[in-house]
Structures are given as C-alpha cells and as structure tokens.
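Lab notebook page, bench 4
Experiment: in silico fold of construct C2
Operator: M.H.
Input chain length: 306 residues
Purpose: comparison with the prior construct
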Amino acid sequence: MYTFIVNPHSRSGEGQKTWEEIHLLLEKNHIPFEVYFTRYQKHATTIMKSLTSDSVTRTVIVLGGDGTINEVINGIEDFKHLTLGYIPTGSGNDFARGYSLPSNPKEVLDYILHSPHIHYMDIGEVSYKNKKRRFAVSCGIGYDAGICHEAVVSKIKPVLNRVHLGKLTYALIAVRQWLFLTPYECTITLNHSETHHFSHCYFVSAMNHRYEGGGVQFAPHADPEDRLLSICAVADVPKWRLLLVLAAALFGKHTHLKGSHLYNCETISIQYGGAMPVHTDGEPVFLQKDISVSCLSERLRIITAR
C-alpha cells in the first residue's frame, strides 16, 4: 500500500493535473494506494503526524513542491518506519534537483514503483526563540529569505506559474529586494568554537542540498548524507558585487569570489545586528536576530532515481 500526500494547488494548480495522471496510472496497474489532499497551509504537517504516530511501516509519496516537502518532514513522528518518495510539481523543485529526479512525473512514479534506490538523507533543524523547524534543502537568514518571504505573497507568481515562467518570479523579486537591502553586522559560530564576524552581511545560508531558490548552487559540494551543513555567507563587499556573486552562484562558480564565505560544519549559530527574514525550504519563519542550525540525529529513507 502506497500513501500519497498531494498538494493540488502546487504551481498554481499543476499539482491537481499531475495527480489526475498519476491516479489513472495507479488504477490501470492495480497498485493499492490511499491519498490525502492538502487543503490549507501546514495541512501536510498535520497529515504526516497522524500517519507516523502509530509505528506502522509506510511508504509515503509526496506530490507537490519544496514547501510541501517542508511541511511533510515537520510532521514526521517516527523516522524508523517511514520511507519517503517524491513527485515534484512545484516551481523551484530544489529537492528534486538535488537528487536528480526526472522532471516527468510518470518517470518518477515508475522509479518509485519498480526501481527504487534508497538513500538516507540528513534533516536540518533551525532553532529560534524556543521554537524549532526542520528543513530538507536549506535554511537561510537575510537577503535570500527576504526573497522567499515576498514570493509567498506575490500576486504575479501564480500568473507566471501558469505560463511556466515561475522562476522569473524569483528573479524579479530578487532585484526588488536588492534595491532596498540593508546589510547588518553578523557573527557566526561554527561547531560552538570557530567564530567569524562580518561588518556588512547580506545573508547566511545553511545548505543540506546543493541548490536553493530554483537552482542556485550556493553549496556546489553539499552532500545531504554527510551529517554536515554547507554554509554560504555573502558579506563585506559593495552591494553591486552581491549581484555578481549571485550570478556566478547560478553555476556554482562563486566559491572563490570576493565576498563569498563557505564553510562546512555540524552546527552553526548566527547572530545578526538587526531582525532579518528567515526561511526553511523557502517557507517563511518571519524576522529573527539569532538562530541556530544543526542536523537531527535521525535520517530519512528517501526513494531516488539512482
């Protein structure tokens, strides 16, 4: 029995269309399944808590975007009895890109049903003000999170998604955010011992996968199974140079540019001089000054294509 969690509203309704195709294939091949549809924000978290609270072995297939994945992993009560598959229908799809999943949903379903490869993925966790939130792809504070915050409420995003230009949303918002961006001083502490201070920090990203923001390679050497976070901070350069770093990061070529600061660590504490937006897998966590990021002791069984 396969359990599907479907976000029918992902990519402005693309999720519903994809599910209808998947549904027909499951019925045609007599594959036993059950399905849950998300109806509101964080509904996938509620569904997943219910599914994983009884210690029953399950294979759960998520159909949605990176935001749906984020909601799902935040609802997992029992990692031991869970295997997770993913059919991407979002606009960013960095989780799928990180595991080289096919863009064709039918191909992904075929891998899940007939040729599953199992990986054990690290799960990141950010702590702030006595609260915690998990992430699969990345967590960030500053400029990159500001883009995510605005994208969530953007009126143009659904329009561009319908004509398959969803990534343009992020590019337009990135320019607008850059125009009004004010960097703050920032101190980061790696593994509770190694400290770095920046006078003018634009953002700090803690990466589990290589990509965020719809394919930007902030951490070209990140490995989601090495128990380490890959850190990318951009700081102490003129604001115009931030654009150069971002353009190079599209291809993972920013690592040696002035202003780019990359580290690997098990834990990181970030203290900003002013309240900055925070995100987990593109989902807003509102404004914070101090956050800490690490990996859970548990790992998640993931079905991949290779």
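Observations: The chain has a mean pLDDT of 92. The CA atoms of residues 5 and 36 lie 5 Å apart.
Next step: discuss at group meeting.
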